[in-house]
Amino acid sequence: MYLFLALSIIIVISTVSIGVVKLFKGEITDSYGIKKAIKVNISSFIPVLAGLIITMIPQVAHAAGTESTSGLGFIAAGLSTGLAAIGAGYAVGAVGSSALGAVSEDPKILGKTLIFVGLAEGIAIYGLIISIMILGRL
């Protein structure tokens, strides 16, 4: 665990310092250079962060000091709600922008587009229902 924590701190400090040095030298002025730097930072930081989270799961699941196995149930409930909310946000963003474009061309189809936006929002409700069912069993 401490290895992942030290590695993530080293990655953050090194990428920030490299970025500051390149910014003062004038090497990173276009959007391509900035996008490349962000991609390198994310592609190196996300796996380290995922490794840290994976190594922390047993400690989080038994954080209360009891011998119950309900910790993983709480993690499952949180994941089902969180991932459903992320999916719903992505779906509403895609459907909402398309619906706005369609309504701007033909205002008579507003009701039909609201149905699709409502269906996309239903994804979050499904995740919430699943998490309530998981918490009901704990």
State the gist of this model.
By secondary structure, the protein is mainly alpha-helical. It has four helices and no strands.
Characterise this structure.
By secondary structure, this protein is mostly helical. The chain has two domains: 1-61; 65-138, F1FO ATP Synthase, CATH 1.20.20. Helix content is 86%, strand content 0%. The protein is built from four helices and no strands. It has helices spanning 2-25, 31-61, 71-105, 110-137. Helix 1 (2-25) runs antiparallel to helix 2 (31-61) and helix 3 (71-105) packs antiparallel against helix 4 (110-137). The longest helix is centred in the middle third of the chain and has 35 residues, at 71-105. The protein starts with a helix and ends with a helix. 4% of the residues are buried. The mean pLDDT is 81.
Q: Tags for this entry?
A:
single chain, 138 residues, mainly alpha, F1FO ATP Synthase, 2 domains, 4 helices, 86% helix
